[in-house]
Specification:
By secondary structure, this protein is mainly α. The protein folds into 2 domains: 35 residues; 110 residues, no CATH class. The protein is 84% helix and 0% strand. Helix 2 crosses helix 6, helix 3 runs parallel beside helix 7 and helix 4 runs antiparallel to helix 6. The two termini are 30 Å apart.
């Protein structure tokens, strides 16, 4: 029944050599999220809720970056098959421009208008100032996040 799963040792060695770095990257990102939640959770319920509200716009950035990764992975794989490295660089560059522009726009809005932005996601008057303070600081980190994500996604082909 599972005869198609039987491959040579070389296949599985190659598979694990490709999969392990991706697994470790995801493990590190998950562990970072757990540590972040734990540290903020020690501050209390209010700060934890504020961080949750402040991270709502980040979900939009993550969706856009995921779309860029998925779309560029298809194009990069095709160009890799043709050995067209110039086209691969163009695809990565376009991904950088789009991800950088979107994340920079969000970061600027979160920096200059944090109370108004957080007011869109919560009507709790106690949370908005705490969320705005956190959003003002963390917003610029998502510029690096989006650029790194596009770069990492491009190299997974």
């Amino acid at each position: 029944m599972f005869a198609y799963m039987k491959r040579g040792r070389e296949f599985y060695r190659d598979l694990f050599s490709l999969a392990l770095p991706i697994v470790f990257q995801n493990l590190i990102m998950t562990a970072l999220g757990i540590v972040d939640i734990f540290m903020v959770g020690l501050l209390g319920e209010g700060p934890m809720a504020a961080v949750t509200v402040a991270n709502t716009p980040v979900f939009v950035i993550q969706l856009i970056v995921f779309g860029l990764q998925s779309g560029s992975a298809v194009l990069i794989s095709q160009y890799w098959g043709k050995q067209d490295k110039e086209a691969i660089n163009r695809v990565i560059g376009i991904g950088f421009y789009i991800a950088g522009a979107v994340s920079t726009a969000f970061a600027l809005v979160m920096f200059f208008f944090p109370n108004q932005m957080m007011g869109l996601f919560s009507n709790n008057e106690e949370l908005i100032p705490m969320a705005a303070e956190y959003a003002r600081v963390i917003g610029f980190a998502y510029i690096a996040y989006s650029l790194f994500s596009v770069y990492i996604g491009a190299h997974r082909r």
